[in-house]
Please model this.
Amino acid sequence: AKVVYNPSDLTVEKPTRIQTIENVQYYVYGEDFIALAPSVERDSLTTLTLNGRTTEINRYAFESCSNLTSIEIPSSVTSIGDHAFRYCDALATVTFGANSKLESIGEDAFSYCSNLTSIKIPSSVTSIGGNAFYSCERLESIAVDPNNANYCNDEYGVLFNKDKTELIQYPIGNTRTQYTIPSSVTSIGDSAFNNCSNLTSIEIPSSVKSIGNSAFNHCSALETVTFGEDSKLESIGYSAFSYCSKLTSIEIPSSVTSIGSFAFSDTPWLTNLQNTSYGIATASDGQTRFVIDVPTDITDDELDMTNVKIIADEAFKSCSNLTNIEIPSSVTSIGRYAFYDCRALKTVTFGDNSQLESIGDYAFYYCSNLTSIEIPSSVTSIGGWAFCDCSALKTVTFEDTVTEWTVTRGSTSKTITSQDLLSPSTMATYLRSTYYNYTWTKKQSA
Model:
């Protein structure tokens, strides 16, 4: 049988019978599906033992059963669907049957189960969806059966993939104040430490290349973030450190090539950065600089772009007084929404021998006074909507008029020929309207 949220999730119109299990009424559809009867108040469930015929727990099946304190999942169950136990506030015990056949735990499956203190992942599990244990504020440890071939945990109950290259979930109810990420880790997953209120310091080894979206979001006690020497970090995701209300300093490794929107929003560090250097940070090498989040009232003469490597997502968003900007040759990427809604912006110029490689989605969206721009030959990608609603844009000059481009939207693709590239007015039309919502990729030279 498959346990589903309600009968509307099924293609079968009428139940074959009504059955009571553990004093809770269910609708039964043949031998395939069961659902909580519509008359059942979801908060009336307190304990639940599923029978041995149950093979699937579908998405939302027990969502918001706010008084459910324990559940025994029989070994016959092979999958737990997305959001299956989300918002089960009282859920403290989840037990899996011996020789469990469970293969998958869906996205948000146990998110917001605020009384869950521990859980053991059976050896049979092959996939765990994103945010499966998100905001389980009392979760102290995640244990994985040692025979599991896909996942493991460390001595602190932190969940990893089997070879410990990805840190998936730190149990945010753990009372430790310091944690050193193992040197095998190359990526920190989305929301991995989100809402961890006890952690005051974290050591991130040089092996880590990416920090996921919201990875340390709302870590309210976090004061110290230390990166290993010769860090290989390349990307810091959306809201990665936002709302870390005690984070006063951080040295971003010079190796970083992209910084997502709101990565450091609502931190004392960013507030101070905006007050002292207009939201431009200096990397750990003392030279490389990153434009993080510029105050929206900045003017042209206040801006110093010396040695800037990347312009982060939304860095200049809605800077209403910005009329001209010179992007130095050291800049390698312009992030998503970087100059979004800069309606006074008239001139964008690039330094000689520019190293710019990418212009992100929506980068110059709503720059309605921008009349012309020259794309450096080093650029290999232009995101969708990058020049959408640039109503005054009449000429776009490509420094390289030989190498063709491919523009793609879904399964549709077109070629921008060298003949097209020779016409600045044609290219302006293409970027502003004809192919405004396509992703542009430069073809490799023959």
Observations:
- The first helix runs from residue 268 to 277.
